[in-house]
Specification:
Layout (H helix, E strand, L loop, with lengths): L4 E5 L4 H12 L4 E5 L2 H12 L6 E3 L5 E3 L1 H11 L10 H16 L2 H9 L2 H16 L5 H16 L12 H19 L12 H13 L4 H10 L1 H11 L21 H10 L1 H17 L12 E6 L2 E6 L3 H15 L2 H6 L2 H8 L2 H6 L5 E4 L2 E4 L1
Helix pairs in contact: 1-9, 4-9, 4-14, 5-9, 6-7, 8-11
Length: 370
Amino acid sequence: MTDRYRLYGAEFSLYSGKARSYLRKKNIPFDEITATVKQYKKFIVPRTGVRYIPVVQTPDDHVLQDTTVIIDELEKRFSDHSVYPNTPKQRLVSLLLEVYGDEWLVIPAMHYRWNYPATNADFIHQEFGSLVAPNAPAFIQRFLGKKLGSKFSAMVPKLGVHEHNITAIEHSYVELLSDLQAHFEQHPFLLGDKPCIADFGFIGPLYAHLFRDPAPGKLMRAKAPAVCAWVGRMTNDSPALCRGEWLENDEIPETLLPILKRMAREQLPVLANTNQRLDEWRADNPNTAEVSRLLGSHQFSIGGIQSERAIQPYCLWMFQRPVDYYQSLSADLLENHSVNALLSQTGFADALSAGLSNRLVRKDNKLQFA
């Protein structure tokens, strides 16, 4: 090993985009190693026990999996210019929006990738095929990538994307693009002149799928050029954290309020029901510490259209972060920074006050009850 970090990922991988952007914006020296099938067999699975990317190997040979774990560990090692604001409203909003980017925007990301085959198929299949046979001709990569990609496209219905609610999903996403366009016309990043943890939560889906893939990329360029410019700022090699500042006086821009309200309207009921269903699953499995990645299915709604999606407890591990932070704040801080007023305005007050029934931890890269 050298003094450089190693990122095992792929350019078209949603969460690799989050980790790569963080390493660049933080100015951490790293080399990216494409996560080919060979690398999965040789390094990723033996060292992590799971088949997920990205993976970061530190110069002292510590192996990290999961973007939130990666970022939090590297924040300890590179503590200057943190991606976490230190004022109550900005920190809480950044944690909430990271959950939204990581766990909810995967819905439009996967829909636009896999449900526009006439535009996307050749591009996506070749991207996947490059992991199987990186030196093969393009037509061979496309042939091999079609089979590998089918394992990922099978996840689309589990995320809640079905023929009857596609119009609602697309309408919600286009509205989000409009809100982000309005925001990035005024601010270079979500909370000021440098990226916060929420920017990194957003860049995964908004770069790897929704900017790079042909069909949604065309849509973003047409509808939201300021979002495209933000994608460029988040993905270029120029470090940003050392130069910028958060907005003064713990300000939350008015342009973020519609996005927070959409998160509360669409994602928060799913988080609440997932918490309830996890309670039931734990009661039925009292001697099981490890939590299954999928726990049956439940109903959810986008744009007033009801549909079904798989229950995914991992989102609760992510949601613990803003819950814990909110519940750690003193009454004086909540009052002086108008935190509760913001939460009431955007629809989060009850959920953050109530908290979660179960505490989850990651052990050996798998989810368990604490």
